[in-house]
Amino acid sequence: MDTAVRFPTTPKAIRARPLTLCARMNVEKAFQAIMRNCLDQIEANEHGVVKYHDVESLHQMRVGLRRLRSALGMFDEVLSLPVALRQELDWLVSQLGPARDWDVLAGSTLARIAGTVDADTQLVRVQHAAADQAVALHAVAGAAVVSERYQNLIGSLERWHDERGWRAMQLPADRVRLKLRIGDFAKGILEKDQQRLLKRGRKLKGADPAARHRVRIAAKKTRYAAEFFASLYPQKTVRPYVRALGRLQDELGLMNDASVADRLLRELSESNDEIKVGAGFLRGYLASHVRQGGCKLRKLWKRFVALGAPG
Prior knowledge:
By secondary structure, the chain is mainly alpha-helical. It has one domain (27-194, 207-305): Alpha solenoid (CHAD domain). It is 74% helix and 0% strand. Helix 1 runs antiparallel to helix 6 (148-162). The longest helix is centred in the C-terminal third of the chain and has 37 residues, at 235-271. It holds the Pfam family CHAD.
């Protein structure tokens, strides 16, 4: 008889499955495939968020939500999610976002700093305080995902997808566009996203956090579009494009993490006198590194611009 004690293990966080669209698909069927892919990613991470308060499961659920909202934005000209469901999606994002912000601060941003400076009691206190905040907010996120409100939201999205609920709200011209091949539609989306990103990126040099954040959001939406439609284009062109976008987005993400960290550290220091000194040092450290990161960001931007959009 096997008498070994078995402990439950944290489930593996689920990333988005590879998505393959067929060039013969019409716009409506392509949207259904994309939305199904996003919903699968969201729902696959429920268990990790609710039962284990798993950091990576929460992250992947948020990625799924961002991808879904991005897809809805891309197809908004031909189909539209009801306002009530959009508001419920916003609610869910608001329940998951704070926990992720504190996860990044405690587990990534402060961990990187701790590896480059001499550890002292002040810094350790800040790390512990940030980790405590993350734990508390994971409980909030888990409660949201297990709630009846969440179940109603997911059920409504599933029905809207399966029953093609957008048809009830469409004009005749929109129905015609839904029957067109996905290729021309995808090309238009990618060109539009590329132009928006290029326009925002021209002001990267000397940009403040708000301007960089706008570039980051544009880069993220462009990357999601490129990944959704990647199977429609030659891999030798789409892969370098997505890779360059990813590197640009990562660097912009690190800068945004520093900006968010500054806000969270300020909140911590205002509510806890014992960590004011440590929080103040960390805010100064992060501000210095953001200034130094501008050169790398500009190089990544130039590499991305040189590639051009696939198609």
